[in-house]
Design brief:
This protein is 33% helix and 27% strand. It has helices spanning 43-50, 70-73, 91-101, 107-116, 130-142, 160-172, 211-218, 222-230; strands spanning 4-13, 18-28, 31-36, 58-63, 66-67, 76-79, 148-152, 179-184, 196-201, 204-210. It is an alpha/beta fold and 231 residues long.
């Protein structure tokens, strides 16, 4: 089945802040989407609404035609920017925890990913460098058999070598039926992944479309479009 995510007239307000205003977007399976914007633009809020962690103030979010609910949470794999790993766990215990938490978690796939990413399965989370911890977050998230994967700023604070490994891991997890959404404000190294891009500025979508078409139309890279939009 080709998965779909449809966002209609979505707005999200907190007590004294409007995080999203009338957002309309369509995502389809088999594509990797770049969600572009500086910190505070609304990227994380959008992901959390799709993941069912925050409730929309107005509008609709449909995953495979169904509104966001406890049912859709089971097919959305969301990786937040925060370090959600338990410091006292060994890597092997993190894997077992995910196996217990998610019915769609593929333990063998995760162990293979961890080996490829040079993570010691017997090491404690507290002993991992920031780069290794980021790799572990990616590995456990992508080891679920989800319909939608959302990675919030996966390259934040990561050195160049670790970034390459993370990008390779994302590419190798590509599937023609799955939707992958990556939020980032680090564009130069990751833009080669994107089939489509969405630029969010001040809580609204200001530009979106096929990445290659936008490059051709504007005669510039996605990175330079980013600089133009947020200058």
């Amino acid at each position: 089945m080709n998965n779909s995510l449809e966002i209609k007239n979505l707005s999200k307000k907190y007590l004294n802040k409007t995080a999203l205003i009338n957002v309309n977007l369509n995502f389809e399976g088999g594509k990797i989407y770049g969600l572009m914007g500086p910190n505070g633009s609304g990227k994380t809020t959008l992901m959390k609404v799709v993941a069912g962690l925050h409730k929309a103030s107005a509008g609709d979010v449909l995953i495979n035609g169904e509104p966001v609910s406890y049912l859709t949470k089971g097919i959305v794999a969301y990786m937040p920017t925060e370090n959600f790993l338990v410091d006292s766990f060994k890597v092997s215990e993190v894997i077992d925890y995910y196996k217990d938490m998610y019915a769609d978690f593929d333990k063998d796939k995760c162990i293979n990913l961890i080996k490829k990413l040079d993570i010691d399965i017997n090491q404690k989370v507290s002993a991992l460098s920031s780069g290794l911890a980021a790799k572990l977050k990616i590995a456990v998230t992508l080891s679920r058999q989800a319909a939608i994967y959302m990675l919030d700023e996966p390259l934040n604070g990561i050195d160049i070598i670790a970034r390459e490994a993370i990008i390779d891991t994302i590419v190798n997890s590509y599937d023609e039926s799955k939707i992958i959404i990556i939020s980032s404000h680090i564009v130069d190294e990751i833009e080669k992944l994107f089939d489509c891009v969405v630029f969010i500025k001040d809580a609204t979508v200001v530009l979106s479309g096929d990445a290659e078409e936008l490059r051709t139309q504007r005669q510039m890279s996605i990175e330079n479009i980013y600089k133009e939009v947020y200058r």
